[in-house]
Amino acid sequence: AEANDVAILEYIISEADFAILLPMKLKLNKEYAHRHLFVTLLMAGLCCWFGYDGCIRYPAMSAADLYKSIEKQDPPDGVNLVTFKAEKIRRQYEFAGIALLVSLVVGLRLLKSARFDFDFDDDGFTCRGRRFARADIDRIDRSQWEKKSILTIQTTDGMKIVLDGWHHTGVREFAAAYAG
C-alpha cells in the first residue's frame, strides 16, 4: 500500500508541476547564447586583426623587416623577400576570410535560435505563428533525446520541427508534457 501511495503522490506532484509550468514558451539558453556570442566576437576580432596586418601593417614594412619580425632572424641569402612578403600578406587575407566566415556562420545560427518562436500548453503548441493541436502531432522522434536532448516533431501536414535542449530552455518540460 505504501508503494502505491508514493506512486500516487509522485503523480500528483508531477501534475502540479505542469499545471504551474503550462503554458510555456521556449527561451534561448543563456549558456548557449553566451558561448556562441563569444565565438562570434572572437572570430570577428581575429578577422579584424588579420585584415589589419594584411592591409596596413605588412604592406607598410619592408620585406626584410617583415621577414625578421615573423621568422625572428635575418633572411638567409637567396630568399626572395618580395615573394615572401606577398605570400604573408595573402595568408593574412585568407585567415581574415576564414575568421569572417566562421563569425558569420556562428552568429547567424545564434540569431536563428534567438528568433525561434515556440510555445506550448496542455492543448497543443504554437510554432512560427501557427497553432497545432495535440491531434496535429503525427509523431515525436525521441531517438536523439537521451544523448543530445533533441526532439523532432512531425505534424500531420508534414511539417518537421526540431527542438534542441541545448539551444532552448523548456524543451525538457515539453518532452515531459508530451511523453508517449
Please describe what this structure looks like:
The model has no long low-confidence stretch (mean pLDDT 89). It is built from six helices and nine strands. It is 59% helix and 18% strand. A four-stranded antiparallel beta sheet has the order 1-3-4-5, with no helix packed on it. A three-stranded antiparallel beta sheet has the order 6-7-8. The two termini are 27 Å apart. The protein is an alpha+beta fold.
What's the arrangement of secondary structure elements?
Elements: H1 2-21, E1 24-25, E2 27-28, H2 30-60, H3 63-71, H4 81-115, E3 118-120, E4 124-127, E5 130-133, E6 137-141, H5 145-148, E7 150-155, E8 160-164, E9 168-169, H6 171-177
Antiparallel strand pairs: 1-3, 2-9, 3-4, 4-5, 6-7, 7-8
Helix pairs in contact: 2-4, 3-4
